[in-house]
Amino acid sequence: MLLIKGITLKINIIIILVLITLPFKSIHSKLLSSATDMNSTIEDSSLIVIGKIKNIKSVGNNHHAILNVESTLMGYTGESNIEVFFYGDLKKSDMDSISSIDLELRALKFYKNEYVLVFLKGGNKPYRVVNHHQGKMLIEKTKKKSLVNVPYFLQQNNKLGEIEPLEKVISVIKEKI
Protein backbone atom coordinates (compact mmCIF):
# COMPACT_ATOMS: atom_id res chain seq x y z
CA MET A 1 0.00 0.00 0.00
CA LEU A 2 2.82 2.37 0.92
CA LEU A 3 4.61 1.46 -2.34
CA ILE A 4 1.50 2.36 -4.40
CA LYS A 5 1.18 5.75 -2.63
CA GLY A 6 4.87 6.46 -3.33
CA ILE A 7 4.48 5.64 -7.04
CA THR A 8 1.30 7.71 -7.25
CA LEU A 9 3.09 10.66 -5.63
CA LYS A 10 5.99 10.40 -8.11
CA ILE A 11 3.60 10.28 -11.06
CA ASN A 12 1.73 13.34 -9.75
CA ILE A 13 4.99 15.25 -9.33
CA ILE A 14 6.04 14.38 -12.89
CA ILE A 15 2.66 15.52 -14.24
CA ILE A 16 2.91 18.81 -12.33
CA LEU A 17 6.44 19.44 -13.61
CA VAL A 18 5.37 18.75 -17.19
CA LEU A 19 2.39 21.10 -16.85
CA ILE A 20 4.56 23.83 -15.36
CA THR A 21 7.29 23.66 -18.03
CA LEU A 22 5.00 23.08 -21.04
CA PRO A 23 4.06 26.76 -21.57
CA PHE A 24 7.74 27.79 -21.43
CA LYS A 25 8.72 25.17 -24.01
CA SER A 26 5.90 26.36 -26.24
CA ILE A 27 6.99 30.00 -26.00
CA HIS A 28 10.61 29.04 -26.57
CA SER A 29 9.78 26.99 -29.68
CA LYS A 30 7.66 29.81 -31.08
CA LEU A 31 10.47 32.30 -30.59
CA LEU A 32 13.00 30.03 -32.25
CA SER A 33 10.76 28.90 -35.09
CA SER A 34 9.12 32.25 -35.83
CA ALA A 35 11.31 32.83 -38.86
CA THR A 36 13.01 29.54 -39.52
CA ASP A 37 12.29 28.85 -43.16
CA MET A 38 14.05 30.04 -46.28
CA ASN A 39 11.34 32.48 -47.42
CA SER A 40 10.98 34.34 -44.12
CA THR A 41 14.75 34.36 -43.61
CA ILE A 42 15.18 36.08 -46.97
CA GLU A 43 12.29 38.47 -46.26
CA ASP A 44 13.87 39.45 -42.92
CA SER A 45 17.26 40.05 -44.57
CA SER A 46 18.41 43.34 -46.02
CA LEU A 47 21.71 41.85 -47.17
CA ILE A 48 22.88 38.33 -48.09
CA VAL A 49 26.61 38.04 -48.61
CA ILE A 50 29.48 35.60 -48.97
CA GLY A 51 32.84 36.48 -47.52
CA LYS A 52 35.77 35.77 -45.27
CA ILE A 53 36.11 36.85 -41.64
CA LYS A 54 39.22 39.04 -41.53
CA ASN A 55 39.20 39.89 -37.86
CA ILE A 56 37.21 39.86 -34.63
CA LYS A 57 37.07 42.90 -32.40
CA SER A 58 35.67 43.11 -28.90
CA VAL A 59 33.11 45.79 -28.16
CA GLY A 60 32.29 45.75 -24.45
CA ASN A 61 31.13 42.22 -23.60
CA ASN A 62 30.26 41.44 -27.22
CA HIS A 63 32.08 41.14 -30.54
CA HIS A 64 32.05 42.40 -34.11
CA ALA A 65 33.28 40.18 -36.92
CA ILE A 66 34.95 42.11 -39.73
CA LEU A 67 33.65 40.40 -42.87
CA ASN A 68 35.39 40.93 -46.21
CA VAL A 69 32.51 40.80 -48.71
CA GLU A 70 33.43 38.71 -51.75
CA SER A 71 29.94 38.36 -53.24
CA THR A 72 26.52 39.94 -52.64
CA LEU A 73 23.45 37.79 -53.35
CA MET A 74 20.87 40.34 -52.18
CA GLY A 75 20.97 43.97 -51.09
CA TYR A 76 23.74 46.49 -51.45
CA THR A 77 26.74 47.56 -49.45
CA GLY A 78 29.22 50.02 -50.83
CA GLU A 79 31.84 48.69 -48.46
CA SER A 80 34.24 45.82 -49.02
CA ASN A 81 34.39 45.17 -45.26
CA ILE A 82 31.34 45.15 -43.00
CA GLU A 83 30.91 44.59 -39.28
CA VAL A 84 28.62 41.82 -38.01
CA PHE A 85 27.53 41.72 -34.35
CA PHE A 86 27.59 38.64 -32.15
CA TYR A 87 27.30 38.13 -28.41
CA GLY A 88 30.32 37.48 -26.23
CA ASP A 89 30.88 34.41 -24.11
CA LEU A 90 29.29 34.05 -20.70
CA LYS A 91 31.18 34.24 -17.48
CA LYS A 92 30.97 31.23 -15.18
CA SER A 93 29.16 33.41 -12.63
CA ASP A 94 26.37 34.06 -15.17
CA MET A 95 25.72 30.40 -15.94
CA ASP A 96 23.28 29.88 -13.06
CA SER A 97 20.90 32.61 -14.20
CA ILE A 98 21.07 32.12 -17.97
CA SER A 99 17.94 31.28 -19.96
CA SER A 100 17.75 28.87 -22.87
CA ILE A 101 16.85 31.79 -25.14
CA ASP A 102 20.01 33.62 -24.11
CA LEU A 103 22.02 30.49 -24.83
CA GLU A 104 20.40 30.32 -28.28
CA LEU A 105 21.39 33.94 -28.97
CA ARG A 106 24.98 33.22 -27.91
CA ALA A 107 25.29 30.15 -30.16
CA LEU A 108 26.28 32.38 -33.07
CA LYS A 109 30.08 32.65 -33.27
CA PHE A 110 32.50 33.85 -35.91
CA TYR A 111 36.17 32.91 -36.17
CA LYS A 112 39.00 34.58 -38.02
CA ASN A 113 39.63 33.23 -41.56
CA GLU A 114 36.37 31.29 -41.88
CA TYR A 115 34.34 31.63 -45.07
CA VAL A 116 30.62 32.22 -44.58
CA LEU A 117 27.35 32.89 -46.33
CA VAL A 118 25.24 35.07 -44.03
CA PHE A 119 21.74 36.50 -43.98
CA LEU A 120 22.00 39.99 -42.47
CA LYS A 121 19.57 42.67 -41.36
CA GLY A 122 19.86 46.32 -40.58
CA GLY A 123 21.44 49.21 -42.36
CA ASN A 124 23.07 50.50 -39.21
CA LYS A 125 26.48 49.28 -38.25
CA PRO A 126 27.02 46.62 -37.20
CA TYR A 127 24.75 44.26 -39.12
CA ARG A 128 22.97 41.47 -37.26
CA VAL A 129 22.52 37.90 -38.46
CA VAL A 130 18.91 36.88 -39.21
CA ASN A 131 17.86 33.88 -37.07
CA HIS A 132 21.06 34.11 -35.05
CA HIS A 133 23.32 31.08 -35.65
CA GLN A 134 20.91 29.63 -38.20
CA GLY A 135 21.47 32.60 -40.50
CA LYS A 136 25.15 31.73 -40.89
CA MET A 137 26.39 29.01 -43.23
CA LEU A 138 29.97 27.85 -43.02
CA ILE A 139 31.71 27.40 -46.39
CA GLU A 140 34.51 24.89 -46.78
CA LYS A 141 36.69 25.64 -49.78
CA THR A 142 38.39 22.65 -51.38
CA LYS A 143 40.54 22.44 -54.51
CA LYS A 144 37.63 21.21 -56.62
CA LYS A 145 34.66 23.14 -55.18
CA SER A 146 33.21 24.98 -52.21
CA LEU A 147 30.84 23.13 -49.90
CA VAL A 148 28.27 24.68 -47.57
CA ASN A 149 27.08 23.37 -44.22
CA VAL A 150 23.33 24.03 -44.62
CA PRO A 151 21.25 24.60 -41.45
CA TYR A 152 18.36 22.16 -41.10
CA PHE A 153 15.64 24.79 -41.46
CA LEU A 154 17.03 25.76 -44.86
CA GLN A 155 17.15 22.12 -45.98
CA GLN A 156 13.39 21.75 -45.54
CA ASN A 157 11.33 22.08 -48.73
CA ASN A 158 14.38 23.23 -50.69
CA LYS A 159 15.80 19.85 -51.72
CA LEU A 160 19.03 20.64 -49.90
CA GLY A 161 21.06 18.22 -47.84
CA GLU A 162 23.28 18.91 -44.86
CA ILE A 163 26.33 19.52 -47.08
CA GLU A 164 25.81 21.03 -50.54
CA PRO A 165 27.93 22.70 -53.23
CA LEU A 166 27.96 26.48 -52.85
CA GLU A 167 26.58 26.95 -56.36
CA LYS A 168 23.46 24.89 -55.55
CA VAL A 169 22.79 26.85 -52.33
CA ILE A 170 23.21 30.16 -54.18
CA SER A 171 20.81 28.95 -56.88
CA VAL A 172 18.13 28.03 -54.31
CA ILE A 173 18.50 31.42 -52.56
CA LYS A 174 18.33 33.36 -55.83
CA GLU A 175 15.15 31.49 -56.84
CA LYS A 176 13.52 32.73 -53.62
CA ILE A 177 14.63 36.39 -53.89
Q: Which tags fit this structure?
A:
34% helix, alpha+beta, 2 domains, eight-stranded antiparallel sheet, 177 residues, OB fold (Dihydrolipoamide Acetyltransferase, E2P)
Low-confidence stretches: 22-35
CATH evolutionary superfamily of the largest domain:
Nucleic acid-binding proteins
Radius of gyration: 21 Å
Number of structural units classed as domains: 2
- Tell me the helix content: 25-40%
Query: From the coordinates shown, what is the CATH architecture of the largest domain?
Result: Beta Barrel
Backbone shape: globular
Distance between the termini: 67 Å
Order of helices and strands: HHEEEHEEEEHEH
| Average pLDDT reading | 78
In oligomeric terms, what are we looking at?
single chain
Strand tally is 8
How many helices does DSSP assign?
A: 5
- SS strand fraction: 25-35%
CATH topology of the largest domain: OB fold (Dihydrolipoamide Acetyltransferase, E2P)
CATH class of the largest domain: Mainly Beta
**Which secondary-structure class do the elements indicate?**
alpha+beta
- Main beta-sheet strand count, sense and barrel state: 8 strands, antiparallel
Protein model, in words:
The chain is of the alpha+beta class and 177 residues long. It folds into two domains: 34 residues; 139 residues, Nucleic acid-binding proteins (OB fold (Dihydrolipoamide Acetyltransferase, E2P)). Helices cover 34% and strands 31% of the residues. Strands 1, 2, 3, 4, 5, 6, 7 and 8 form an eight-stranded antiparallel beta sheet that branches. The chain is globular and about 40 Å long.
